[in-house]
Fold:
Amino acid sequence: MFRWLTLRQESGYSLIESIFQLVIFCIFVHFIVLFFLWKAPVESKMADYYATEWELFAIELQEMLAEVSTFNVLVGDREIVLKTNRGDIEIGQRGAVIRKTVNQQGYVPMYTNVAQVIFSRHDEELHMEVTMLDGRIRERRFAIGLRQE
Structure:
């Protein structure tokens, strides 16, 4: 009889064990829901990050083009050269980066993840078309502020 009681106590789950497992499962489900609630705003911020990076690049380029004494688009439409008070500035694509060189000394990356950039000049405007690595195309027109020397 004693043997029958021990076998009966060891088989199956008790109601308390089932409730305990259900509570643990509910806690994990809440963590999963919280993760997805956190993930959605982070993804939207990342999309905004790339738009912000583009706008900052455009502002910096427009600032450089505000007062130039000479401006040229080089052959191949991949590079522009301008002369300012700070010296000769070259802006062009190297690899997946649009970078700036001042007086042919070093370079500063300005915009990344670029597959192709095309510069074209229309009178006193610079038209720039950038194809990103993911296929998106960004376009912008910049005013060229040529000053008389």
About this structure: The beta strands are 70-73, 79-84, 87-94, 97-102, 105-112, 114-122, 125-132, 137-143. The radius of gyration is 31 Å. The chain has a mean pLDDT of 85.
